[in-house]
Design a protein that fits this description.
alpha/beta; TIM Barrel; eight-stranded mixed β-sheet; six-stranded parallel β-sheet; globular; Metal-dep_hydrolase_composite; EC 3.5.1.25; carbohydrate metabolism; hydrolase
């Protein structure tokens, strides 16, 4: 049994001071005194927060999910734990079917395994069911129409599918996914018209992939995917690196979506955590310069910023305090994946996924399922 003292404990609706957080694999109690025979962790006045959940990440520290090997997932898992991330969805790219299945097989094997870093919750399948006109950094050579057959054997591994609903004939794929699986459908890399996007949402698509990026924009006569995102009750991923979206729009997004429907993600690639230079994404050359990752064509190719810095950026450019902004990378992604009964907040009985941050969201310790996986 362990406990954390001298911390500001960040709950969903309040911050507690002068309390002790007691845990083993799950959170056992929030009390006034240190229990007997308890290993004590001193938070030294910092914030004790729920661990962060990244539902959209392709790579880190020179490793890519599409390498399809365990070592790549291990490296990503351990690396992102340095930033307070306690669980994540390794995210695939639009590549050939063999490569996608190889990556999914590895993710399946490692799902919920006790590894050194952040826990693998399952996979986010980004592509190949997207629109070539909004492919972004995805390879157009491998784009195909939505096919249930491709994902059927992985329906318990895949937790999110990014797709373009306008390529789904009569929404048959959408209906079949909703009827036969618990997979979250997320609209992205899509040129859907407003009514097409609304149609998919009405049938159960409940996420938007990296909102504003890789989708039909907001127009007064055809509001597109962005309009559908802003006028319905879907969760919206946001890359808050101040590059993918102008920081002045953070308040606009917050005002229109509310803090309960925004999910901060990294969309990190293998260059995350490394120096500027040349890297790869989905078999394509990526050039990283000035904290931006771009294909040779100039298209943005994911990000290189860690999730805690995304959280800080969003806090720094809105009126959210640390309690409210942490939700955007903890309980909100947990709710979107329907795992908020176990993860996403510091409630008694939930998994002991904990991150200790200072006021600028710098990470001092990360705890996953009660085990310290990073200490500064």
């Amino acid at each position: 049994m362990k406990c954390i003292i001298n911390g500001k404990i960040v709950l969903e609706n309040q911050i507690l001071e002068n309390k002790v957080l007691v845990f083993d694999e799950t959170i056992l109690d929030i009390t006034d005194k240190v229990p007997q025979e308890c290993q004590v962790i001193d938070a030294k006045g910092n914030y004790v927060c729920p661990g962060l959940i990244d539902i959209h990440i392709h790579g880190n520290m020179g490793r890519d999910v599409m390498n399809g090997d365990e070592e790549s997932i291990f490296t990503i898992s351990k690396s992102i734990s340095r930033h307070g991330v306690t669980s994540f969805l390794p995210t695939t790219m639009t590549m050939d079917e063999e490569s996608i299945k190889k990556a999914l097989d590895t993710i399946k094997y490692l799902m919920n395994k006790d590894i050194e870093g952040a826990r693998v919750l399952g996979a986010h399948l980004e592509g190949p069911f997207i629109n070539v006109d909004y492919k972004g950094a995805q390879n157009p050579k491998f784009i195909v129409s939505p096919s249930y057959n491709l994902i059927e054997e992985y329906k318990d591994v895949i937790k999110v599918i990014t797709y373009a609903p306008e390529t789904d004939s009569n929404f048959e794929f959408t209906k079949k996914i909703r009827r036969n699986t618990n997979i979250v459908l997320s609209i992205g890399h899509s040129r859907a018209k407003f009514e097409e996007a609304k149609g998919a949402i009405n049938l159960g698509a409940n996420n938007i992939t990296h909102m504003f990026n890789g989708m039909s924009g907001l127009n007064h006569r055809d509001p597109g995917v962005v309009g559908a995102a802003l006028t319905t009750d879907v969760f919206c991923e946001v890359i808050a690196d101040e590059i993918h979206i102008l920081k002045d729009l953070f308040k606009f997004i917050l005002k229109n979506k509310g803090e309960d429907k925004i999910i901060l993600i990294t969309d990190s690639i293998e260059a995350g955590g490394l120096e500027p230079g040349e890297y790869s994404l989905g078999g394509q050359k990526v050039i990283v310069k000035d904290n931006q990752a771009r294909l040779e064509s100039g298209s943005l190719a994911g990000s290189v910023m860690p999730l805690n810095k995304m959280v800080y950026n969003f806090m720094n450019n809105t009126d959210l305090d640390i309690r409210r902004v942490i939700k955007l990378a903890s309980i909100n992604p947990a709710k979107s994946l329907n795992i908020d009964d176990k993860k996403g907040s510091l409630e008694i009985g939930k998994d002991a996924d904990i991150a200790i941050f200072d006021k600028d969201i710098n990470c001092y310790m990360t705890i996953s399922d009660g085990k310290v996986i990073y200490k500064k």
